[in-house]
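Quick question, first post here. What does this chain look like in 3D?
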Amino acid sequence: AFKAAVLIQQWYRRHVARLEMRRRCTWRIFQSIEYSCEQDQIKLHNFFSYLMDQFTPSSSKERDFISRMFVSGESYKEAELEKYCDYESIEVPDSYTGPHLSFPLLPDHATALLEAFQQKQQLHARYVLNLLHETRKHLKQLPNISHVSTCYSEEITVCGDLHGQLDDLFLIFYKNGLPSPSKSYVFNGDFVDRGKQSLEILVILFTFLLIYPKEVHLNRGNHEDHMVNLRYGFTKEVMQKYKVHGKKILRMFQNVFCWLPLATLIDQKVLIIHGGISDTTDLDMLEKIQRNRFVSVLRLKKRKESSGKPQIQAINGESESGTDAAPRLSLQPQTAQAPSTANRREFSRWLRQTVQEQIDTCRRLVDISESEPEELTYSSMVSLKDADEPCWTLQEEWKQVLDILWSDPMPQEGCRENKVRGGGCYFGPDVTEKFLEKYSLQFLIRSHECKQEGYEFCHSRKVLTIFSASNYYEIGSNRGAYVKLGPDLIPHFVQYQANKTAHLLTMTQRQGFLVALFAKISRVEESAFRALREKLFAHTSALISAFKSYDRDNTGKITLSNWATAVESVLRLGLPWRMLRPQLVRSAKDGMLEYKSWLDDLAMEQRSQEHIQSSLLEVIYRNRSNLETIFRIIDRDHSGLISFEEFQQTWKLFSSHMNIELTDDGINDLVRSIDFNKDGNIDFNEFLEAFRLVRQCP
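> Answer (accepted):
Ran it through. Tokens below.
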């Protein structure tokens, strides 16, 4: 009996070890594909940015269109934004049965919203715009780094990414309690995208922010960025839910995002940021920069030199005086030659002497009369107060924001570019140690990365990652978690899974742990390999070229080792292909793979879902996400349709880059040929169909 027990125990341990190995491989697949999509987004954005930088508009009409390509809410002056998003002009019909809001908000309003969203009701557009208007006013008065103390509440709860998963937020409130004077929360960014209820999450969080401004704190994440929203779903969600006033709501959201604080500091000892740090992260600089200028962190307008004067352009090609922000000190003098920026003290003294002249210029540019009181934000007051402090270039400030929103920790020493995501950096334990020592901090809390258990320590428990979106990749793929900090600043974790199926699996573990665990891993694993096979199919042509480089005799066969090397050279996902091979390659004789038949099997699997030519389907699979993002970029009014004018101006942008000369009549003929149903607009299906037809042509 003892020997039998030992054998069963050994079998059990081996089986659990194999399941754990499969779980980790599945995780690597999901994460690698996610990060490669982020690379594609940044590459696409950089491409359009390059086109815009190189394009010279021939008319004011073209100039206006190009300025709108990436400039959204930030180009509106204060008065213009208020007029454009005038919620008071929107009437609420008597037939509306959803929740009503009146300001100032009360706890009952928050409760009504929670109940309404649980019942799948929608808040009227008037109330959404009114809420955004009040939220924006509040955020503009907040510092870049919020300071929170445990002295005023028993504990502070920190939540990570939610990504539009409203069930997770409901579960957090159910387990931990609603925000209140005795229950403080810090939500660490990435409220939107990927999930289907991003808007509801923002409405709830903004409501609690206004009701309990001292107890609810929101940090900005890398997805609180209108360029990222174009690809990952928030833009589409808003326009689908509010077809009439969606453009106004989206414009206000974009403007509110850039006013979100960048970090939160608890008891001067625990720093909460969304992504991470770098070896150049400077909290003093982050405290003083004007955060609202960075509407999209993905794009920075290059600095240009003109006649020896420091001329610094703002983000997204917008002059600093053109933002709706509080007046910022311009570094472009009008009456006196600026001293060299090499001598920062002399430059700062000159800057302080000319501040009034620059403010007057700002007033004139944004149509503020002398009698009209000027609204000061926290950032502008800091700028005026510290006018003789060192001045930073826009590039330096942008790098600070980019790093804290996009960076990830790594186990190796040092700090290097984050090529996996395409933005931010990787920072090692030595960078963390120096940073904590410099600012007398105990540890960092960050989010930005999905973790299987919902949280994870690294760097000798000095960096804590917290992720609150459970079942992020697939049902059962991961737990969500939040962390509670008391006056002793010792973290206490609460884990959960919001999906009902996951709860059922957890209950069945009492009767059959292995059965439940195997079923869950198998389901998640199959989803991961399905996504990976789609990725492989989308790169069929490149894979064939890579395989042929190892098949010099044209036998149609390569070794499994060469297969793994070739696949990684094409996809660059950093996956253990030899370990994944049994799930991807079902037949291989004598250690050799017939790669053409293997690729045919991949094509058959995808063609079973789409009745399209294999080579064309490959191209569409590889480019569909980029095509959809390009479509949304061109569709600047987010109507779901591209007007002839929008298409014409965009084509001029492309043709200037590709050195293609095409007359206006030629462009008109082109756009009419794409408008298959002849309704005067191009929808996404027509856009995709045109791409398909072009790819079919020899």
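The chain has a mean pLDDT of 76.
DSSP finds 25 helices and 20 strands in the chain.
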